[in-house]
Known about the structure:
Layout (H helix, E strand, L loop, with lengths): L10 E6 L4 H8 L8 H4 L8 H8 L10 H25 L2 E3 L2 E5 L6 E4 L1 E4 L6 E8 L18 H14 L3 E8 L3 E8 L2 H20 L9 H10 L12 H36 L4 E4 L2 E5 L8 H7 L1 H6 L9 H7 L1 H6 L13
Parallel strand pairs: 6-7
Antiparallel strand pairs: 1-3, 2-5, 3-4, 5-6, 7-8, 9-10
Amino acid sequence: MVNGRKVTPTGILVAPAGLPEAEWLELRRRGIGGSDIAALLGMNRYTSPYELYLDKRGELPAIPQAAALERAARWGHLHEPLLAAEFARAHGVKVRRVGMVRHEHEPWMLASIDRQVLGCEDGPCLLEIKNRSAWKASDWGPSGSSDGVPDTECLQTHWYMCVTGYRHAHVAVLINGNDDRYYRVSYDPELADDVVAMARDFWRRVRDGDPPPVDGSQAVTELLSHLWEAGEGDVRVVSAAEVAPLCEQRARIKAQIKVLEEQLAGTENQLKMMLGDAETAVCDGKPLFTWKRNGPFSVRQFTHAHPDLAAKYEHLVPVLDTQALAAGHPEIFRAFRARVLRVNGGNH
């Protein structure tokens, strides 16, 4: 196949399969791909819309990926050809790698499809391949079920159909290394239109330098903790007109949290009163809630009540002497401290 050639009903080949990772990542920044959809919709627990925006603009600093995610990606890549071959055998079709394609009329719409399927009884289509741990097994329905593909993977598959012009696709997932499941996903025009509209708006933001709002997701919190290296004592002059409303909003929210926490504690205490010296509350033969001694162990109270027994079970453990590290290597110590937001007069 030659770059620039139409390889699907609406897909133009941008780059062949097997492109070096650095070149492939650079091409991905030229548009929106299938793996970007969940992130730009705020559905990716690891990547926020703001981080995706910075990445597409080439403004995202290098952030080390968690080792567990790297291993998962590597094993997913290793399993991909095996699952593709098993899908082809089980369904009596042929599959082949294509590479990265773009929509013939919307160059920013990109798709790196796992396999193109030939010989499907419903016509040409694509295969999306996933590798998931046993913890994710309940997210997937029985093999062959019409609604067995989770939302995130279904949206990604729909994006690929939008780009390629196919009107159905197959999804194959390998769970826990030995549970292979297969699904057929039909094109939903309304869903596809919505996804394309939201992706188009996001790409406009990227193009115009209009970042999406910063939200309170864990993905944004993690990003901000790695985004900048703050110099000790550095000061930035800010506008009171911009900062004051945020500080006031923060104070209001913290006050609301305090009230809600007190209300929650009161409600839970009422439940505890119902149990008294029992551990489990049962209604119509079904357990409703429990109050058991299975929480954190109180070392302080135990040591005070049973000093001799506590001494018997004490043992030395190696710990990092952070005070000595701070004294001997203050710059290195500071580099590994978390940044903590404190607002004057805001009860931290």
